Amino acid sequence: MALTKKQKDVLDYITGFVREQGFAPTQKEIQAHFGFKSLGSVQDYIKYLTQGGYLNNDSHSVRGLTPSHLSSQGTEEIPLLGSIAAGVPIEAIENTDTIAVPITMLKKGTHYALKVKGESMIEDGILSGDIAIIRHSTQADNGQIVVAVMDNETTLKRYFKKAKQIELHPANKNMQPIIIKDKECEIRGVLVGLIRAY
Question: Which residues are catalytic?
Fold first, then answer.
């Protein structure tokens, strides 16, 4: 079942609320947030999202709403899109794998995961084999670690925007920054966390 924009907005609000507060919003809080005239409107959205498999609803609890992709263990399944040095734009990676990530690591917005390859960021504690948790974004602040795409190559580097160019800095004293023109670089996300298996 496809969602309308408003249905997705309601689901996103509930998901964001659970991530930040650790519990679901009440129907009255949803009503107040969206300015619905009645609780009936909220209940209609909840019913549709529940029937569509997007939401679990414990009718015995006022905070009984749980987005289906969030688990009771405090994790959320996000797409694992392959490796950061894969050499293809992220959208081109056809991969349906997912990985469970602690909800506390996620902020508002859409997230995905990439497996790190190489040693260009080792001095920032990002090692080959780590799973990078990325918040999808097309913009970044200076100094943030970003997923950048240039010439169809995907890379994880620290981002600096200068007057007429972009500098992508590795965290490895044996490597040089990548310096390119602004329009030759696309930001695809910002690093928000790492998962490492020992």
Answer: 120, 157
Q: Tell me: the pLDDT tens digits for 101-123? A: 887 777 778 888 888 888 888 88
Parallel, antiparallel or unpaired: strands 55-57 and 65-67: antiparallel
Q: Running DSSP on this structure, what letter comes out for residue 151? A: T
CATH for 5-67? 1.10.10.10
Sign of the dihedral defined by the CA atoms of residues 30, 67, 91, 108, in that order: positive
HSE of 129 in the Cβ direction (CA atoms, 13 Å)? 3
Report which secondary-structure segment, H or E, holds 34: helix 27-34
Domain boundaries, the chain: 5-67, 75-195
Q: For 68-106, how does the pLDDT look when each residue is reduced to its tens digit (9 = 90+)?
A: 776 556 777 888 877 776 333 444 455 568 888 887 777
CATH 2.10.109.10 assigned to domain 75-195? The reply is yes
The average confidence (pLDDT) of the chain is 83
Q: Which residues contact 137 (CB under 8 A, 6 or more apart)?
A: 109, 187, 188, 189, 190
The helices-and-strands tally (H runs, E runs) of the chain is: 3, 11
What angle separates helix 39-51 from helix 5-21, to the nearest 10 degrees?
A: 90
pTM for the structure as a whole = 0.64
